[in-house]
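[step 3/7] fold_predict: job queued, chain A
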Amino acid sequence: MHQPRRITIRELLKEQGEAAKMHLLAGAEGLDRYIDHPRIQKPSLAFAGYLENLNDYRLQVIGKTELQFLATRSEAEQKQAIKAVFDLKLAGVVITRNQAPPDLILAAAKRTGTPLLVSAFPSSTFMTNMMLYLSHRLAPLLHQHGVYMDIFGLGVLITGCSGIGKSEIGLELISRGHRLIADDMVEFTRESPRIVVGRSPESLRYHMEIRGLGILNIRDLYGAAAITDTKRLSLMVELVAWEQLEPEDRVLGCEVETDILEVSIPRIPIPIRSGRSLAVLVEVATRNQLLKQRGIYSGENFVQSLQDKIDQGAI
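[step 4/7] structure written:
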């Protein structure tokens, strides 16, 4: 289940105040209002009286154009327009180019407790930089149980029921030269419509729990080459009981698609049985996925070749 994300104006000011050359002018009591969408709005039409699509959970930017438009209106019209906009209890308003806000805007921000900030950047620069930051900061987030590894350059999530041996397989893969990203709990974010990136929560980073050995620090045991912080998710490997694999899947395999944050990810079940080298099988599944990304499907090619021979009477 993915969690909706948000950021308060207080957090935004703390994290981006210096980078965005931004400081607070008024409305300090509203600093705990929050933004839940990376897209930024300019209330140009709202100042003209059209408030329909003005979103109070988005950051609003007032630039040179908006202030020049307001200056063309009578004082009564300015007062009415500004009152209508600020009465919406906006999350926050930023004035760009270090422009001094009109007294009516300053008064409205104080009256409604709306954080009013000013940035030295022009509107275009401020909005581009801020949307990039908010897109990352507010990206959809999902926590998933499993062991997340960097294998041959692909992000591979190993899943399965508790106690099935995920961490032990991860430890063997590390000893074979692959890199740990996260153990037990993996934090996934959708960085773009088709890209999901996984990392470890800060408190668990670089650590693995192995039954009988306790908590191990992989960086201390194997060195910095054995760990990495983040990777795009390319493959899920699910450890399942041997009985769950259907006979026909021996030839074609049983790859399915699983949605992670609305992105389809290939998922391959690997049945567990005594004597099987599961770390090797995970490696081979990853190599096979690399081939599929190049358009090479071994099982399908074999079946097609076999069918061609049957059709020609060669078998």
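[step 5/7] annotate
The mean pLDDT is 89.
The longest helix spans residues 278-293.
exit 0
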